[in-house]
Design brief:
364 residues; alpha+beta; Elongation Factor Tu (Ef-tu), domain 3; 5 helices
Length: 364
């Protein structure tokens, strides 16, 4: 006969004895000789006399876990710049193609330069001439053949010629439109033969290192975050990237009442693309949790989820738990003692308070 049947019979015999005793003995005797504590003690004694139900179990030790907040967001490159011409001219060479990687200082578009080169040579000659004139005027000062006003005028012409030379050299240099930083060519706006005006775009250049992960946090969550805190993000590929919180918005969006959160991630190999969906994972507090199979979960009488464990004196206990996160092979729960004996086989055949004999499995 199974242990459950023995247990039920014991309760039934005790109940019949109690009612029979209540009818056969006066109230004074019952009140003086039978208390609730005595009845409970007799019940416990009957239960202890029953053979223990055999179950299988394993010892579970709580592990420290990190509670995280998950925010939906996206990756976003730090800079997107339309590189524009500073001087006008005809495009004679486009040194890059769509999608190529460039380094800071690389040529992007080259404008016609022959006329500018000639003007630079002219400015250099004029500067040299002004220098020689000034040197001659200075040498005549010692012999008293030249007055100070003429010497000052010669010096001014040197300065003017030097300024013109520098301006024309800069204009010649600006005829080659260069990359202001390392990045990728995202758009091309000029072709060979196009006549660019000052301010016209040559290419669109994007900077992918570092990369930002941008998300929105509600007004209830925003107080949980701090600048420079470590965080992670999960990409659509399943890859986890790590970085630090670099920006927390101070002004909420007027429509959604949410705040902008940004995480900065190093991306030296440009492996992270801009515009990817990302799940921002920001750690909060730590807690102790047990990982248990879903099959061990049960419902308590009040509808709460619980787990049966072996407690003191090898008695069955049914404890309420909270599921904090899910995994592929189980769930992480709180509400159990730090070290708990989980009933893994036979939990559906035992009741709270029943004595069990546990055969331990290997701790997984």
């Amino acid at each position: 006969m199974s242990r459950n049947i023995w247990f039920a019979l014991a309760i039934l015999v005790l109940a019949i004895s109690w009612f029979a005793f209540d009818f056969l003995v006066s109230d004074e005797v019952v009140a003086s000789n039978k208390t609730i504590a005595q009845i409970q003690a007799e019940t416990d004694a009957l239960i202890e006399d029953l053979p223990a139900t055999k179950v299988r179990g394993r010892i579970s030790t709580a592990k420290e876990m990190q509670r995280t907040t998950q925010l939906s967001g996206r990756t976003e490159n730090k800079r997107t710049v339309q590189v524009r011409a500073e001087v006008g001219g005809l495009v004679v060479q486009r040194a890059v193609e769509l999608g190529v990687q460039v380094s800071k200082g690389d040529a992007l578009c080259v404008l016609e330069q022959e006329e500018r080169e000639a003007r630079v040579r002219e400015a250099k000659d004029m500067f040299r001439e002004a220098q020689l004139e000034y040197a001659g005027q200075t040498s005549l000062r010692a012999s008293g053949l030249q007055i100070e006003r003429q010497i000052a005028a010669a010096k001014a012409r040197v300065t003017q010629a030097e300024t013109m030379k520098l301006q024309r050299e800069k204009e010649l240099a600006r005829a080659t439109i260069k990359a202001p930083f390392d990045g990728f060519i995202e758009e091309v706006h000029a072709e060979i033969g196009d006549l660019l005006q000052p301010g016209a775009a040559c290419v669109t250049l994007i900077d992918l290192d570092p990369m930002k992960v941008v998300a929105k946090a509600s007004e209830k969550e925003i107080h949980n975050f701090t600048l420079d805190a470590e965080a992670q993000a999960r990409l659509p590929s399943g890859d986890i990237i790590a970085g630090t919180i670099s920006f927390i918005g101070q002004q909420s969006d007027q429509k959604t009442r949410s705040f902008t959160i940004e995480m900065l991630v190093d991306n030296p190999d440009f492996a992270i693309r801009s515009g990817l969906t990302a799940e921002l994972l920001i750690p909060l507090d730590s807690y102790e949790a047990h990982k248990i199979p879903v099959a061990l979960l049960g419902l308590m009488d009040n509808g709460d989820i619980g787990v049966r464990i072996v407690g003191d004196r090898d008695r069955v206990e049914f404890l309420p738990i909270n599921i904090v996160t899910e995994d592929t092979d189980g769930v992480w729960v709180t509400g159990l003692p730090e070290v708990s004996t989980l009933i893994t086989v036979g939990q559906e055949f035992v009741v709270v308070g029943e004595t069990v004999e546990v055969t331990f499995e290997e701790d997984s």
